[in-house]
Amino acid sequence: ATKITGPGQRATLSAVRGEGMKAVSIRVNDVLGVAGFVFPGDRVDVLLTRTERGDGDDKSFVDVLLQSMKVLAVDQVADVSKDSPTVVKSVTLEASTKDAQKLTLAAGAGQLSLALRQAAASKGETTERVTLSDLTGETPADVAARQAELDRKAAAEAEAAAERKRADDKIAGLAQAVERVGSKLDDLSKVKPAPAVVSAPEVREVVKEVVKYVTPEPPARATVGVFRGVKLETYDVPRQP
Predict the structure, then answer these.
(1) What would the pLDDT profile of 35-64 be if each residue is shown by its tens digit?
(2) Are residues 92 and 124 in the same domain?
């Protein structure tokens, strides 16, 4: 039988698993599953890709989670004689209890992918985490500086876009105001002016005031004062012409 479970049959995986080992399935696609070139009986390394988010600094990296894991089945096929590449949706691996726990946890923590090992290479090797800086040769400081520059440009572009929007809003507001004024002028042009009423000229009475200056006549008599010693005596005498 080539199926993991057939009608009325016992699962064939129970016969190919090692003592105390578990069968754990992980989801793959045409890329993560090595384009369908993984077959039952092969050994693969399981890679975990994930991103840690910090204070404005996201760090993506890849770890080798498990090495030299035996493939028990692809999809529901456990036939080790299968040699035709097929794009599958899941791969079942033989794992210890702890490794099964790691696979289950890693499936929710990031993205799992497979790396096909050489048939005779079952021994593990020393691995290290690979980050984005390893792809470009940049140091963490270089990556941080480049990210800061990208953030600065993004902020400048956002500010420029906001300024353009404010200018567009002002232009739109002015256009609406001009349209309203034009509409009012059109309404006023349609109103017929009221006929002009000519009133009769107002008649005003002109009063002329004549002022005549008259020189007063000098008085006929005058009062004259005479000191006699320390005594003042006054006399009323006729004015001489």
Answers:
(1) 667 888 888 899 999 988 776 666 888 999
(2) yes
Compute and round to an integer the Cα radius of gyration of the chain: 57
Q: How many domains does the chain have?
A: 2
Residues 185 and 96: their CA atoms lie apart, in Å, by 87
Residue 3 has pLDDT above 60, yes or no: no
183: in domain: no
Please state, in angstroms and rounded to a whole number, the distance separating the CA atoms of residues 181 and 191.
16
Residue 153 lies in domain: 138-177
Whether 152 and 49 share a structural domain: no
Q: Using an 8 Å Cβ cutoff, are 115 and 34 in contact?
A: yes
DSSP assignment string, 179-209: HHHHHHHHHHHTSPPPPP-PPPPPP------
| Global pTM value | 0.47
